[in-house]
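pasting for the record
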Amino acid sequence: MAEVQRTGGILSGEKPYTAEVWYRLEVVTYSHLDEWENVYFDRPQVSWREYEVVKTTPKGVWVTLTYFGEKRFILRDAKKRFACPTKAEAKESFIFRKKRHIKILTAQLKEAQEALRVGEKAQA
């Protein structure tokens, strides 16, 4: 499991501690408008998200999602996990998610194309 060295606040007098971190790979694409309101997309960029483990249980871990303390439980042995204990597993999970995403969108495209074909043949 990956660990990140964190330090306590200077004024608090806390000693440095080691926190367990889980990872999620995401690819983000930013867009912007020009003065004529045309939309432009930048190149997709890799983004590694790190989630600090706040509690460990025999079955999984609780991680913090936001600075506001929102938490999420992740099963250790689940086939699909929101985040993974290593970057290699997170990359593998990302690839699986995107392949599944492509399958779903391909099926939706085929359905839309078939609906269009049937609709164009319909008599008015």
